[in-house]
Amino acid sequence: MTLTDLGLPMPVRPAPAGMPDTGPLLDTFGRAATDLRVSLTDRCNLRCTYCMPAEGLDWLPENQLLTAEELDRLLAIAVTRLGITSIRFTGGEPLVAQHLEQTIASASALHPRPEIAVTTNGLGLARRAARLKAAGLNRVNVSLDTVNAEHFAQITRRDRLADVLAGLAAAAAAGLGPIKVNAVLDPRTGLDDVVPLLRFCLDHGYQLRIIEQMPLDAGHEWSRDTTIEAETVLGTLRRYFDLQPDPSPRGSAPAQLWRVDGSQSTVGIIASVSESFCGACNRTRLTADGQIRSCLFSATETDLRALLRRGADDDALEAAWRTAMWAKPAGHGINDPSFVQPVRPMSAIGG
Ligand code: SAM
Ligand code: SF4
């Protein structure tokens, strides 16, 4: 039984018809979510133009953020009841969250042990890579759009390229590989940046993944006309590199991989806009303030924080999470005329 803080039974909504109450975390299209994206904070120490305005945002109030203990409880439900096998901590900037190491340690003690990854902008990673590894972190993705210091400062509005490069090196030294580098190409400089960026990644043994810019910027300024699409990126790269499709099965991976110059090294293209991969999506998302989103582009959220703070038991939390995912839409609809950009920007959802 679930209890409210008044000690009264909490109304439990009936489960939607046909929704299983055990087993994998399913939606009505038969997709099973096994990959959980957890945003640890909406705050960040960079101001990437495609994500945040120069002045930052109105951050979520402290009392609305899940505490480390609340988060541990939800992670345990995700892994032990809902079949989540991989957890990625993101944000905002996850390294800004003080409890990151503690949360990773708790998650890595769960059975069956999930694969644990972090997506970070790399600031401060040089100092923390070894500690994160010791806490149980398996892998990192580091976001880096260019190795040109001037372009980096224009894109992120901070002169911090050297810190990101040091973070990448420390992650590699700590054994947090395979290391992936996430790049969103700037409409002005991206096609100039992408060739040296791929050379840098090949030289260091990092896998570059180029992500099409999505309509998730806080300023709602995204335009399809200025987005550098996958075909354009491939056309540019092919002038300098031999690219052959990677023969490994893609599964639910968002990136289409290309083998470079006949080697085992690959570059990935994430064509979220021009060639969506929603049909194979295996993700569920938890925001820093405890909301479940079934999709990056969801228009609705399910408030697990309110349930937690009203004393809901694990059965009720599990049922609410399942119900949220059962309603996952077929796709993001970016290319539909009726598409409406979500109110939350990428930094507050968790990319
Ligand atoms: N701060 C961390 C970072 O930058 O890696 C984690 C959060 S960030 C929101 C996660 C990823 O989303 C980054 O790789 C970033 O490049 C990407 N991203 C941010 N805004 C985006 C947008 N509008 N379209 C596509 N990707 C975006
Ligand atoms: Fe910060 Fe990551 Fe957004 Fe850049 S993409 S502003 S690093 S949250």
TrEMBL record:
**Which residues are recorded as binding S-adenosyl-L-methionine?**
Y50, G92, S143, M214
Task: Give the UniProt keywords, A-Z.
Answer: 4Fe-4S, GTP-binding, Iron, Iron-sulfur, Lyase, Metal-binding, Molybdenum cofactor biosynthesis, Nucleotide-binding, S-adenosyl-L-methionine
Biochemical pathway: Cofactor biosynthesis; molybdopterin biosynthesis
Task: Name one process (GO BP) from the record.
Answer: Mo-molybdopterin cofactor biosynthetic process
**Binding of [4Fe-4S] cluster 1: at which residues?**
C44, C48, C51
Give one Pfam hit by family name.
Mob_synth_C
What's a single GO MF annotation on this record? GTP 3',8'-cyclase activity
Transmembrane feature ranges: none
Known catalytic reactions? GTP + AH2 + S-adenosyl-L-methionine = (8S)-3',8-cyclo-7,8-dihydroguanosine 5'-triphosphate + 5'-deoxyadenosine + L-methionine + A + H(+)
PROSITE patterns (UniProt xref): MOAA_NIFB_PQQE, RADICAL_SAM
Q: Which residues form the Radical SAM core domain?
A: 28-246
Residue positions binding GTP: R37, R88, T119, K180, R283, T284, R285
Q: How does it assemble?
A: Monomer and homodimer.
Family from the record: Belongs to the radical SAM superfamily. MoaA family.
- Which PANTHER family did the record assign? MOLYBDENUM COFACTOR BIOSYNTHESIS PROTEIN 1, MOLYBDOPTERIN COFACTOR SYNTHESIS PROTEIN A
The molecule here is called GTP 3',8-cyclase
Organism expressing this protein natively: Mycobacterium adipatum
**What gene name does this entry carry?**
moaA
